[in-house]
């Protein structure tokens, strides 16, 4: 495993729709391992392959400290509800904003063995999955934010 560089701001790879994974090669498996290590090192909760310069439909998402989902060719089958939440992004450091998202999603994908699976997610995991799937479409959370929040305001909230 190796740490990968996270692309920032409006790097062209971040703004391009990613390509479907056609073969589960050793390179894809290595990428998943590297993404996991990179996300943990950066204290993130999700990471899309294009954030590390690979324009493929791959993402990882953390559900707490124990479970990290690896999704290859994810597709959102269903969205329910709507809620506002504060988001940040490893590719847009020190920027936070309020973003409307579905409160519940059903996502299908394949795992590292090529087996199809489905995740029904609510709350934070639903938000993470939507955020990372947006990355795969070349969309950043800043495109959807209805209000930006000063980083100092974020720290004030942590202190109270």
Protein architecture, described:
This protein has four helices and eight strands; from the N terminus they run αβββββββααβα. With 160 residues, it is of the alpha+beta class. The chain has one domain (12-159): Peptide Deformylase (Alpha-Beta Complex). A hairpin with a 2-residue loop joins strand 4 and strand 5. The protein starts with 25 loop residues before the first helix and ends with a helix. The relative contact order is 0.18.
Give the secondary structure arrangement, pairings included.
Blueprint: H1 26-41, E1 46-48, E2 58-63, E3 67-80, E4 83-89, E5 92-101, E6 104-110, E7 116-122, H2 123-136, H3 141-144, E8 147-149, H4 151-159
Antiparallel strand pairs: 1-2, 2-3, 3-6, 4-5, 5-8, 6-7
What's this entry about, in short?
The chain is of the alpha+beta class and 160 residues long. It is 27% helix and 36% strand.
Rg calc: 15 Å
Count of spatially separate domains: 1
Helix content: 25-40%
Helix tally? 4
Which strand order does the major sheet show? 1-2-3-6-7
């Amino acid at each position: 495993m190796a740490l990968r560089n996270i692309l920032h701001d409006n790097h062209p790879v971040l703004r391009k729709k990613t390509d479907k994974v056609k073969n589960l090669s050793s390179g894809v498996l290595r990428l998943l391992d590297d993404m996991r290590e990179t996300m943990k090192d950066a204290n993130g909760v999700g990471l899309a392959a294009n954030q590390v310069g690979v324009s493929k439909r791959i993402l990882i998402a953390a559900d707490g400290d124990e479970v990290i989902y690896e999704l290859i060719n994810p597709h959102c089958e269903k969205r329910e509800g709507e809620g506002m939440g504060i988001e940040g992004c490893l590719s847009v450091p020190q920027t936070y904003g309020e973003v409307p998202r579905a409160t519940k999603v059903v996502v299908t994908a394949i795992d590292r063995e090529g087996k199809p699976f489905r995740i029904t997610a609510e709350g934070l995991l639903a938000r993470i999955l939507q955020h990372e799937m947006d990355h795969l479409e070349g969309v950043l959370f800043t495109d959807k934010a209805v209000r930006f929040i000063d980083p100092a305001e974020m720290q004030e909230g942590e202190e109270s």
